[in-house]
Each structure stands twice: as structure tokens, then as C-alpha cells.
Fold this sequence. Notes:
Blueprint (H helix, E strand, L loop, with lengths): L3 H12 L4 H11 L3 H14 L6 H5 L43 H39 L7 H5 L18 E3 L7 E7 L9 E6 L6 H11 L7 E2 L3 E2 L12 E7 L6 E8 L2 E5 L4 E6 L5 E11 L4 E10 L7
Parallel strand pairs: 4-11
Antiparallel strand pairs: 1-2, 2-3, 5-6, 6-9, 7-8, 7-10, 10-11
Helix pairs in contact: 1-3
Protein name: Type II secretion system protein GspG C-terminal domain-containing protein
Keywords: Membrane, Transmembrane, Transmembrane helix
Amino acid sequence: MAxxxxxxxxxxxxxxxxxxxxxxxxxxxxxxxNISVTDAFAEAQSTATPTGGFLEQHGKKVMxxxxxxxxxxxxxxxxxxxxxxxxxxxxxxxxxxxxxxxAEQETAAEETTQNLTRDLERLSDIQELQTALRVxxxxxQVYPKGLAELVDDKVLESIPLxxxxxxxxxxxxxxxxxxxxxxSFLLEGDVGGLRAGLQVFSADKILPADLIKNQQALxxxxxxxxxxxxxxxxxxxxxPFYPSEEVLLEVAAPAGTELVSSKVVAGGLSLLxxxxxxxFRFSAPATEGVHEVSVFGFDTAGRGHVAQTAITVIEAENxx
Length: 320
């Protein structure tokens, strides 16, 4: 028979508008096995009552941070959090240079800047919280059961809040005498070598906030950490492209270096690949001319590697 806590969890989140696929992925990620999850869905759906659901009533602009499941079958340090906000975020910024969409591009650029500002604030917040949690643990040999205890213990003056939601970051402490925790947040866009989406950190996984900020500064052409110009990439300048023709760009690490992520920036286009081998496919710009392409690689030590190339777009041949 399926676990009753699991059945309640499935019922609750189906009622709130999450898809079965979203719920199943979260459960598997938290350590539940396929058989238990399938049985729970069978039980939950056989007794479910029709409902409009929270998200249907209030819209997908709400981010819901779900509590970690009771009685996890394993110490799932990643925790289980579903964010409906993800459905509202673009996966990448698409270049569109036509005059008819100039206003949309300007709006998108403003939103991207605002998102990045909030994301950088989130990195600082999580860094502050993890530092405070370490101080608390050193004093008590356990982690607090709630973040409010950090204020009660005078480790922090106040608890940082998510800059968009104005809510505390999801925190879960494991056990009656907690010796482990998870702390989660959502990135609205890529930052440095960190990909947009749900991020989960723990006592054993500390967010390298300063390093990621330096990586972002490098991408923006600011004076972040020094970077070497030894990245090996496809030389796109060797042959011209037609407007919107597919571009293939491969990125390889210099000798003796292992890359963990790579990023391509060209005009309004920004693509991040967190998994080697790094192969980027995208469309050439729609306008003729020479378009600069910047490529970044981040190694296991967090150091940055850069390379430059260019895409030359020529007028498409007319066919008769």
C-alpha cells in the first residue's frame, strides 16, 4: 500500500495545479522509488475531487515553495521544492533586430537587467545565510530548525528575503538535532557559470557567491577575476553565413584544464551550457554585417577562459 504521506503530498499538489510530471520529478529527485510514486498517484487520483486549483485561480506568476516531504526515504539533501515561476521565464534571450520588435527588445533588455540585479542580491543573501548557519552550528553543534533562530540567537539582525517575492528563502533542517540542512532559491537568469532555475545548497554544498559574481563580471566585460585567452573554439569568421542560418560552435578546454561550463554571448543572445562536451547551435543574426561573438569557459577552480570570434552575415541568394 502506498505511503499515506506520499498520497497526501500528491493530492495536495495536483489540487494546486502542478502537473503529474512536475510532481513525479520532484519525488524521484527526493529519493522516492518509481513503484511508490506510481502507487501514490493511483491512490490519489482514484479519490481526487475536481478543483480549480490555486494556480488556476491566481495565475502562474506566483512562485510556490513546497515543504520538504515528511519521512523522506533517504537523506535527500537537495530537498524538494517546485517553483511555478519557472514556467514564466524565457529559456534564453533571442536576437531579433527587426524594427517592428525594437520596443519588445528594449523591454526584454530592461527585464534582463532587473532579473540580474535580483539574482546577484540572492547570491549575497544565500552567502550571508550559509555563513550565519555555520556560526550557529559552531556555537550549538546543531543547525537551527528555522531561520528565525538565527535572529533569536543574535547571529543575524534580520532574515534576508527574496527580492521579488519578499519571502524567506526555503530552508529545511534534518532531524530532531539537525546536523544537515537545505537552503533553496530560484535564479531568474543565468549568472556567471550558474544556470537559471532552482538552486539547492546545504552544509556540504556551499554557494561560491563571490566566484560566481566574478564570472558574471567577466561575461559583462568588467574587471572581474583575471581570465586567460586560451579557450579553443570554432573560428566562425572563416566562412560567411546567410541571415538566420544555423551556426555550430564548439568549445574545448586548453591543455591541462577541465571546463565545467561554457557560455556564448552574441548581441542579445546568451547561451549557457553546464555540461561538456560544449556544442552550441543557434541562428545567425538576421541582418547583414559582422557580428562579434564572445565565448567563455569556467574551469573546476572557477577560473575564466575567453575567446572571441565573429559571424559575417551576407545577403541571401535569390532563387528563381
